[in-house]
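Memo to structure team: turn this sequence into structure tokens by end of day. - J.P.
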Amino acid sequence: MIPALYALGDVKKNFQLRKVTSWDINWYFIITVISLMVGFRYQVGGDWDSYLDKLESVSFGFKEALLESGDPGYNLINWLSLFFGGIFVVNFVCGLIFTLGLVLFCRTLPFPWLAITVAIPYLVIVVSMGYSRQAVAIGISMMALASLNQRKLQQNIIYSSIAVLFHSSAIIMLPFYALSIKTKRWILLPILAVLGLLIYQFLIASKVDSFTEGYLYSFYSSSGAKIRVWMNAVPSILFLIFRNKFPISNSEKQFWTLMALGGILTIFVLQVSTSSTAVDRVALYWIPIQLYVFSWLPLVLRKNLDPKITTYFIVIYYAIIQFVWLFYADTAFAWLPYQFYFFGVW
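Reply from structure team:
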């Protein structure tokens, strides 16, 4: 609700704003609120018990923590949290990293508060409170996207590499970055290729069999996967239709074109996949395209539609998504009622 009010005020104030340079109290407020809500939730999220088991599994020592499950970044946070407060420290650190990535990415967009509003119903409430490891990887991936929007390729590569340390599935983003490079290709492409091979060899190769057996051959199914994939496909289609109206650099346009095509492709992959869960989890990395496209849309359509009206439609659209998920999603019970560690049930 709060980001929506900021979004409506933002578009009324100046619908030609491209970048936000100042860090006023509102940004610190939203970072604090989301980080605390994510970090100090209690028994909220479908995988709550699984993360407690993960915390226990790294209690055998530092070396074991780094080698456990191939996600050394997340395992290291777990191991350190054993000395400082357990699962709530893990969740708070992960929530803070995720929120910083979200805010840094949104601040590179024309209407950052509108992008935050778009993120709340699913990316913040469901993903960051339900899939801690992948949420951190997505948060750091959004830092990489912010670097891409600001044409800082070296930072983009660094953030992309760090994201894989928290969830190996984040490697899926590297080819999209590589294919969108327009300058210094002869230097950066070999670096990304070698980096990708190293990441695969040391972090992913040992997990291929368990992933294949756990997702592809076990016929795992995620209820609502089709809806979530379409949530990415809608902005993907909109971007491809209006891509020439986006006043962005060629490399940025190339990247988001590839992402849009990928977002549409997941619809067809979902139809033929034996495991909707696998497609559903990979599609989480496409959620930022919702933030990107819908933040740009009031500007892109301004010649045909008042930016304020476009913003109202977007806010209402995501309010409906929030309502439907809360009252009709099969798994919503795992998030309800929201419980805050210090204050009990809200």
